[in-house]
Write a structure and sequence with these properties.
Chain lengths: 232, 302
């Protein structure tokens, strides 16, 4: 598997994950991708996503229970777990770390073509501000506030606008997660071309505040990890 | 760690100030007291006080604390110039102060000048070898550069001296867990439980780590600590309740075909399941059927 894989992510699925990452700027966050394989052309359609955790991302119990519940919910709609999303704690860390790889392996068991999307913090930070005046919300990522007594800042980085802000990893025959190169063998596209424009708009309205993840749900079960009202 | 009531109090105050209802100073004091990170808000509201001469003078001596708080918030938001201005003012008022020296080093950190920051902290430590905050900043510095082994080493050294610093133990546990060094993380939580046995979060985190490591004995212990968490939280901790169910299921899987006489009593699991169902019925009824199916699948054992 993983020779030629094309992935298409729906705008809302994409936005949910990025907004989640923006809500928890100083921690690693992750999420699960839901979707199906298109019967016509082998395209993996990522139709939805569920933001998972923003704390203790490397621990198993919460991951297991979340996957059980999520899989159960979406199975009724004929949609399966098809991939994993991860954002590193540090701004300048663009490596797929051990925890992310392990969870990726776990998800791979659900779906062999499962991609791992790693948020590219630099690209996120470099999204053009266009008309908006407030500073683009940046992932603080590397801020290790030891209980916030003193906290540092983060370097900024000026890079030009990019199409989507995730790095795509797929699993090769030797069970390693490989970054998809520009040779085009594996690709990720966003279904709606306006996605980043919408994202910028949401950033300026601080939409990330409304994102509910599984951590929030476990802290207060009345919080809905399906985020039904988020894009209404 | 902030309790739910404190979190609510903070949010309410935050909305109030955001919507022009006043109370900015109270909000800033609460943020300081709870040691939470609300840098954008602190920057905005702190500056509104500092830039107004009347409001500023009414603070009296607290003015300097506010400058410090705003400087740090500014650095967190990458508003370096604001931070520099605040620090200049503090330098003028308190020349040669260690506290201001710390801020200067923090500024170097914020600007990404790692080496200069490290030198600044080292020289501060020469004069003040027992300043906990400076020691911890050095750990943060290592972590920021991705030098996790360095951070771990420094933090361990720190804890040899300041072994009662619970936040540091927690930070170390979290670093270990993020590097998948679960046994070491478990050790940290054991220290925390020993020194503060009535704090449920430590029991819960310890149970989570034990479950993650896996193996029958660890699962049995995890179950015990999920149980103690439930005890300490009056049965209200959803994670611990799920934890019990997960443990029972995992132990059942592991002991398939083994001696059945040693099987744990299933009462705890059904009690936990019932408690979860009751809770979901009341507060998340649309998720109840999902929960029931999930619990059924977890009861699959031998």
């Amino acid at each position: 598997m993983g020779g030629e894989s094309r992935y298409e992510i729906a705008q809302n699925a994409y936005l949910k994950l990025v907004l989640h990452a923006l809500k928890h700027k100083a921690s690693a966050v992750n999420g699960v991708l839901l979707g199906r394989v298109s019967p016509h052309n082998d395209l993996v359609e990522i139709t939805d996503s569920v933001p998972l955790f923003h704390s203790h991302v490397g621990l198993l119990p919460q991951l297991e229970i979340s996957l059980i519940l999520i899989e159960e919910h979406y199975a009724a709609e004929g949609i399966n777990i098809v991939g994993y999303f991860h954002a590193n704690e540090r701004f300048d860390d663009s490596e797929l770390g051990g925890v992310a790889k392990n969870i990726g392996d776990h998800i791979y068991r659900y779906f062999p073509q499962a991609p791992v999307l790693l948020l590219d913090n630099k690209k996120l930070e470099a999204l053009p501000r266009s008309k908006d005046r407030s500073p683009v919300m940046q992932r603080k990522s590397w801020l290790p506030g030891i209980n916030a007594e003193a906290i540092g800042g983060k370097r900024s980085c000026k890079i030009s606008f990019s199409w989507h802000i995730a790095l795509l990893y797929t699993r090769d025959a030797s069970r390693n997660w490989k970054l998809a190169g520009t040779d085009g063998s594996s690709q990720l596209t966003i279904k709606e071309p306006s996605a980043n424009v919408v994202l910028l708009d949401y950033i300026s309205t601080e939409k990330w505040k409304d994102v509910v993840d599984f951590d929030d749900h476990l802290d207060d079960i009345s919080q809905d990890w399906l985020n039904p009202e988020l894009f209404k | 760690m902030v309790s739910k009531t404190e979190e609510t109090q903070l949010s309410n105050l935050e909305s109030q100030v955001d919507n022009g209802g006043g109370g900015a100073w109270e909000y800033l004091c609460l943020v300081r007291k709870l040691k939470v990170r609300r840098s954008e808000k602190v920057l905005k509201h702190g500056l509104s006080i500092l830039n107004d001469p009347k409001k500023r003078s009414s603070l009296g001596h607290d003015e300097w604390t506010l400058y410090e708080q705003v400087a740090i918030a500014a650095m967190d938001c990458q508003c370096i110039d604001v931070a520099k201005d605040c620090i200049k003012i503090l330098q003028k008022r308190f020349p040669g102060s260690k506290r201001v020296g710390r801020l200067e080093a923090l500024l170097l950190e914020a600007m990404g000048s790692w080496e200069e920051a490290d030198n600044a902290y080292s020289s501060l430590l020469e004069d003040h070898p027992l300043d906990q905050a400076i020691h911890k900043r050095r750990v943060a510095l290592a972590k920021a550069q991705g030098n996790m082994s360095g951070a771990i080493e420094l933090l361990n050294k720190y804890l040899e001296i300041f072994m009662a610093d619970h936040d540091a133990w927690r930070e170390l546990a979290e670093i270990y867990a993020s590097l998948q060094m679960y046994k070491q993380a478990a050790f940290c939580y054991e220290e925390l439980i020993l020194s503060q046995p009535m704090v449920p979060q430590y029991h819960l985190a310890y149970a989570d780590v034990l479950y993650t490591i896996g193996g029958l004995e660890n699962l049995q212990n995890a179950k015990k600590y999920y149980a103690s968490t439930i005890d300490l939280t009056g049965g209200k901790n959803t994670r611990a309740l799920f934890g019990i169910c997960l443990c029972s299921s995992a132990m059942g899987q592991l002991s398939k075909g083994r001696n059945k006489d040693e099987k744990e009593s299933p009462e705890l699991q059904s009690l936990a399941a019932t408690a979860l169902e009751r809770d979901y019925k009341q507060r998340a009824p649309d998720k109840l059927s999902l929960l029931t199916t999930a619990l059924k699948s977890l009861k699959v054992s031998s």
